[in-house]
Amino acid sequence: MDYRTRIRNIREDRDLTQAQIGVLLNKTQQGYNHIETGRAELKIEDLIKLCQFYNLSADYIIGLTNTPKSFK
Prior knowledge:
CATH class: Mainly Alpha
Helix content: 55-70%
Structural class: mainly alpha
């Protein structure tokens, strides 16, 4: 699974908006939308924030595994 699809699915499963995640990543809603739609790349610093916020491993978020594991 592509990481863009994965981060969108995680966000939607938790009933969060793009604007809410944008605030977490210090981006506008549109800036975060660009990540989910492929017009911008996910920076490593933002990946770390998402791992901490969702308590999920980077391997799961970027699609290297389909088994959700906690962030350590």
